[in-house]
Specification:
The structure is a single chain. The chain is mostly beta strands. Helices cover 14% and strands 42% of the residues. The strands form three sheets. The protein has a five-stranded mixed β-sheet, with no helix packed on it.
Length: 173
């Protein structure tokens, strides 16, 4: 009986510590595929301090059936949007629409870093100054960062492939 009480007391102590001590940020990743392409989105941390640079990237993996394939796309094969889950802020994305191409090898990841895109707001957080800064910094809040793969095969306007992969990060002191 004493042993059971000690185990319960220890469990309560650990649970109480979890409420008081902050939980360390964990890496966050998500993926989706359409049997031809896989899109993976990653961040090394799920939590950032306000003003801290947020690292987000994506990788495209061509799954086959050919050994190599050419993707046709806008200025990047991956576009990005950001949405504040506990507020009104939204970066809508957007990019130039030239018909560019990128060759990928089956099974080899093609890395695409985060890039800001869209129209600046008159008021924060997505102002012209925010767009001009290379680093991704966000104010306090819960944020959904979404990577959107939009490519075609056989030329622009050819066989379309589109994937949407979100991750969430918390920005808090």
């Amino acid at each position: 009986m004493n042993r059971i009480l000690r185990v319960l007391a220890a469990a309560l102590f650990v649970a109480a510590c979890a409420e008081v001590l902050p939980i360390a940020p964990q890496p966050v990743a998500a993926e989706d595929n359409d049997l031809v392409f896989k899109l993976v989105v990653r961040s090394p941390a799920s939590r950032y301090a306000p003003g801290q640079p947020i690292t987000v990237s994506s990788e495209i993996v061509y799954l086959g059936p050919k050994a190599r394939e050419t993707m046709y796309h806008a200025s990047s094969p991956v576009g990005w949007t950001i949405e504040q889950l506990d507020g009104p802020a939204r970066m809508g994305g957007g990019m130039d629409l030239p018909c560019l191409r990128t060759e990928v090898a089956a099974g080899a990841p093609h890395n695409v870093p985060f890039a800001k895109g869209g129209v600046p707001d008159d008021v924060g957080p997505f102002t012209r100054a925010w767009y001009q800064e290379q680093a991704l910094r966000l104010p306090a809040g819960r944020w959904r960062i979404v990577a959107q793969l939009s490519v075609s095969l056989d030329d622009c306007g050819g066989e379309p492939h589109a994937l949407v992969v979100p991750i969430e990060v918390l920005v808090a002191p």
